[in-house]
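User:
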Amino acid sequence: MKTSILASQETGNTKGVPGADDFDVQRIRADFPILQRSVRGKPLIYFDNAATAQKPAVVIDSVDTYYRSMNANINRGVHYLGEQATLAYDDAREKIREFINAEDAREIVFVRGTTEAVNLIANTYGRKNIGKDDEIVITAMEHHSNIVPWQLLCEATGAKLRVVPITDDGELRLDEFEKILSERTKLVSVVYISNALGTVNAVKEIIDRAHRLGIPVMIDGAQSTPHCAIDVRRLDCDFYAFSGHKLFGPNGIGVLYGKVKFLDALPPFQGGGDMIRSVTFERTTYKDSPHKFEAGTPNISGAIGLGAAVDYVSCIGMTRIAEYERYLLKYATDKLAEVDGIKIIGTAKEKAGVISFVCDDVHPHDIGTVLDLDGIAIRAGHHCTQPLMERLGLVATARASFSFYNTFDEIDYFIDAVRRMLKVFKR
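Assistant: Predicted structure:
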C-alpha cells in the first residue's frame, strides 16, 4: 500500500488499529468539501477542530436552501414562506431536543454560542439568585467564556468566585471540590472537556455531589457535544451549553439547555420583538421559554443548519464517532511521545481528541507557522485559558485536535513534519 498522505486519503489506511477498520473515514471525508482542497501546495490536514469544525455539504446545502427557497422571518408572517421558515426553525429545535435527550422543546434556547449561553445564565439566574458573599464554583481549566461572565457577576453583586484546582496531569482535584462546596455555593459551572488539555471531567459525579447540597450545575459542553453522546437527563445537569460551529454546523448559532423549572423562573435576557405577549407603555408581559430568551429575529439559517448537522452526526452515531476518535488520540499520543524534545501537556487518564504540546526553545507560534507550510492546521497560543497556562507554568502550547474525518496517515504526516520542524530549529 502506498503511504503518501495523498494516497492515504484515497485508501483510508487504519494502520491495523483493532476496531478502527469498520469506520469508513474516506466516505465521511468525501462529505466535507474543504477537505478536498490544498493549502500551500499540500493536501490540507486540519487538526484545529477544537477551535471550529469543518462543515459537511448537507449543512452548507441546508443554509443555501433556506436563503434560496424560504427566506422569511418566523413566527409572525401568515404567508407561505413565513410558514415554511417557522416549520424548519421549530423542526431544528426538536432535532436538538432529541439529540441531547431533553425532555421538552421548551428547554432548548437558541443562542449565538456557548459564550452567550453562559452570559445569559449569569445575567438572569445569577443576578436573581446570587448576592453578596455568595459563591460560584468553577475550575482551573475553564475557558475564558466560563470565567469572565462570573467575574462580571461577582463585581456587580459582591459574590465570590471559587476555583477547583487541578493536578499536574490536568485532572480535577475532586477532593478539593468537595471541600469548596458549602451553604454559600449558589452555582457550579464546569467544563465537560477541556479545550486546552482534552481532559474529560467526571461531570456526572460533580453534578451528583452538588445536587446533594441543593446546588444547581451548569455544564460547558462546547467540546463534549461534538465528540460523545450527550444525555442531559442522565447527567441531570440544570443547564448545558454548546456551540453549533464546533458540531459541524454554522457559525453564530448555539444552544442553551435549561430545566423548565429554572427557565420559567428566570427573567428575560434581552428585550425586543417576538419574546413578548403584550406591550404597553406601562407594562410588558413575556412569552414562556424558550421564546422569552430569543428576542428579535434569530439566526434562522443557523438553526436550520445546526439541525442538519445533528442529523448528519446522528446517522453516523455519536458512540461510533467517539470510539474512532479514541483510536486517533491514542495513536497520535503514542507517536508524538516518541519524538525527542516534545513534551505533551495534559495527561489525564480520561481524554478526548486533544493533544497540547511544547518544545524546548521553540515558541508554539513558530511550531504552528512551520507546520502550516506543510498544509497542517493546528492551534498555537493560550487557547483562551490563560489562568490554566499560568497554573502549568506556560505562556502557550501548540495544540492538535482531532475529529472523525481525520486519518491515521494524516497523523503520520504530522509527526514527520514535527520531526522536520525540530531539525530546522536545532540547526
